[in-house]
Amino acid sequence: MMEPTIRNSEALAKTELRRDALAIAEAGFAAVQTSTALHRELRVEGETLHIGERTYPIENRRIYFVGIGKCAIDAAHEIEEVLGDRLTAGIALDVSPIEEHKLRKIVPYIGTHPLPSETNERATESILGLLGMCEEKDLVLMLISGGGSTLLCLHEDSKLCLSEAVLFSSLTKAGVTIQEMNTVRKHISPARGGGLAKAAYPAEVIALIVSDVPGNDIVHVASGPTILDTSTIADAQAVLDRHRITLPQGIILEETPKEPRYFEHVANVLFLSNEDVLRAMQEEGERRGYAVTVVDNRITGEARDVGQRIIAKLHEAPTRSLLLYAGETTVTLSDGHGKGGRNQEMALAALETVDDDELLLPFASDGHDNSDYAGAIADTTTCVHAEEKGIVPADYLAGHRSYDFFSTTGDALETGYTGSNVSDLIIAIKH
């Protein structure tokens, strides 16, 4: 039996409503484990590699693996297990804090996230070097997942990664969408926006994509390193102008690869998405006797506003209702802001109007809501904990201090890195 993902489930499960919410979240986590999905979809039979219903001849071919993002290490272990001696070499660039990965042929690199660093640059250079050795007969299997944009940082001067970190912080503070963010990032690193496909040319590339982007527009997952990019320098500049942001000195916008030949032998496959997790959570909710509605799998907007809108919708729902959402909200930060993440901020905002028979649980599928918490529970039990500690939710919300609030009340969700990343998830229940 698979170990539970939620580490503090027993401590949180104080009510029947909480026990239901945590079980539904656990079902979602189990459905999108990268290694489990690969084990289910990949197999080798004779001289053929099967990926779902797709087949690829592998006789007398060199096979390389490149994993990018928060699912890379988990994927690397399964790839080595499936391919065995048929695997020639590989690189997995992840953000996992795990020190011992025990990989045999795939070299692990642990980069930084959410801010880029020289560590990320060195790893990206190694990936481009590996892909540069590929020949037409070779097969490159990639696993592309969220977090890859930050990891695929590359500039002529390695110190410019610090300037990119400043740019990222400015864009984040302005509350840009992930689509806007990645439109800019594609045009400042040659590894993004189709850059890995160009580097691997003329080899055949199979890119398995784990989507963390609302609507599963895969061109924005990890800034689309294997996909022909249709955005332009003008589009990137428009994002900067719209939010009144100036590029740091030394960083320039450059056009992404537009030549179709680089992408003729590339198959981009949506491998996992929030639809998989929503389906699993729906099944668990129905098993527990709830009438389930998947309301929106591409929700966006200001986190605090979204939280209050969902609670308002929950007020109108009949008893035994379960509303499910997925997507990626934003937090527009004020000066002197504290620590927290968009899921914790959403939960904090919901405390203002949540009723006795209601619960909101927003959480990050990767287990990292801009902190070591995955998310938090908003219900009247949390309100009682706040009263016992003598703290007021509105005061913490005003300063964007959701992490401090839930650290004090003890109502945060703890999972550690999950090895998957398919956007944020929101569970809303009315008993």
Can you describe what's shown?
The chain has two domains: about 10-30 and about 275-430, 3-Layer(aba) Sandwich (glycerate kinase, domain 1); about 35-270, Glycerate kinase, MOFRL-like N-terminal domain (Rossmann fold). Helix content is about 35%, strand content about 20%. It is built from 16 helices and 15 strands. It has helices at about 10, 15-30, 35-40, 70-85, 120-130, 150, 160-175, 180-185, 195-200, 235-240, 275-285, 305-315, 340-350, 380-390, 395-400, 400-410, and strands at about 40-45, 50, 55, 65-70, 85-95, 105-110, 140-145, 205-210, 265-270, 290-300, 320-325, 360-365, 375, 410-415, 425-430. The strands form four sheets. Strands 6-5-4-7-8-9 form a six-stranded parallel beta sheet, sandwiched between helices. A four-stranded mixed beta sheet has the order 10-11-15-12, sandwiched between helices.
